[in-house]
Design goal:
Layout lengths: L11 E2 L10 H4 L6 E6 L17 E2 L2 E2 H10 L6 E5 L16 E4 L6 H11 L9 E4 L9 H11 L6 E6 L4 E4 L27 E4 L5 E10 H10 L9 H6 L6 E4 L12 H9 L4
Bound molecules: cytidine-5'-triphosphate (CTP) and the ligand C[C@](O)(CO)[C@H](O)COP(=O)(O)O.
The site of the ligand C[C@](O)(CO)[C@H](O)COP(=O)(O)O has 9 residues, from strand 11.
Length: 279
């Protein structure tokens, strides 16, 4: 549950909470506090729904609300922040009565949204406090997974993240369109390589390969530095990749398949199956 509510400069609105300007400076010298930060400013292009996917109903409530409720149910989380687009008109209907601060500073990419939020929180969150950044599109998060991440990363200077070891054989294709729905290696038509002839397909050894989930947890100072230093935004597809670009190695903590990212329409039924299970 919410322990305290730091003040936020600029773009925040704080329904149902009372801000206290002095709390941030207390934290850094002592034990860190843990803050949830949920980027929710995406449009959900791959979901191809009528509106942003974070507001689609999954298992009886909006996808974003599942993520908010997981953090609100965790006794380890001091406060939860959600980042939305400046023109978002749906967030108020999704919020619980208290415990969540809305930051209306979403950007063009996930990285921009997270970095804008960190800048908005400067001074409200201590440099040594820990930020747990979690996709709004992962409704299967549980308080137990939050606790597992925090315990697994504890004290590691490069932070860490939930992730799953790769279990399938992994292929790399030279096809230009290798995304969902594309055929590869056929030699003609959809899925052919950019040049003449069929796309080249090869097997990538899966030893040591993991699929990154969220939350991804780093100190405020490290995450702000890493994202602020990123030069190739297209290479920063998660928070950890920005930290890795500094030459650091975040710790991997085994997550759970229920914490899948809802990306394509078919993912909704899988998410609902997990949400119907006991946690
Ligand atoms: N400019 C953006 C883009 C994404 N996100 C958030 O980052 C998370 C992971 O992104 P993704 O699953 O890719 O969501 P979308 O960007 O909405 O989906 P798509 O890429 O299919 O458009 C989501 O919670 C999404 O809302 C964000 O805050 N700001
Ligand atoms: C952060 C993430 O969920 C880790 O797997 C993923 O990288 C987000 O990617 P997306 O393309 O923005 O969905």
């Amino acid at each position: 549950m919410t322990a305290e509510t730091p003040a936020v400069a600029g773009t925040a609105s704080t329904p149902g909470t009372a801000s206290t300007a002095s709390t941030a400076s207390i934290s850094s010298a002592s034990a860190p506090r843990y803050f949830a930060l949920i980027p929710a400013a995406g449009v959900g292009a791959r979901m191809a729904a009528d509106g942003p996917k974070q507001y689609l109903s999954v298992g009886g409530k909006p996808m974003l609300r599942h993520a908010l409720d997981a953090f609100l149910a965790s006794p380890l989380i001091a406060h939860t922040y959600v980042v939305v687009s400046p023109d978002d008109g749906q967030i108020d209907a999704v919020l619980p009565p208290a415990g969540v601060t809305v930051l209306r500073c979403g950007g063009a990419t996930r990285m921009d949204s997270v970095l804008n939020a960190l800048r908005a929180l400067q001074g409200a969150v201590g440099e040594g406090d820990m930020m747990l950044v979690h996709d709004a599109a992962r409704p299967g998060l549980t308080p137990a997974l939050i606790a597992k991440l925090i315990a697994g990363v504890a004290g590691h200077p490069a932070g860490g993240l939930l992730a799953l070891p790769v279990v399938d054989t992994v292929k790399r294709s030279t096809a230009a369109e290798a995304g969902p729905g594309a055929a590869v290696g056929s030699g003609s038509g959809s899925g052919s390589g950019p040049g003449p002839g069929p796309a080249k397909v090869a097997t990538v050894p899966r030893d040591g390969l993991w699929l990154a989930q969220t939350p991804q947890m780093f100190s405020y100072a490290l995450l702000a530095r890493a994202l602020g230093a990123a030069t190739d935004a297209s290479a920063i597809t998660d928070d950890a990749s920005a930290v890795e670009a500094l030459g650091l190695s975040p710790r991997l903590v085994e997550g759970h398949p229920r914490n899948l990212k809802v990306t394509l329409p078919a993912d909704i039924r899988i998410a609902e199956m997990y949400l119907a299970e006991p946690q």
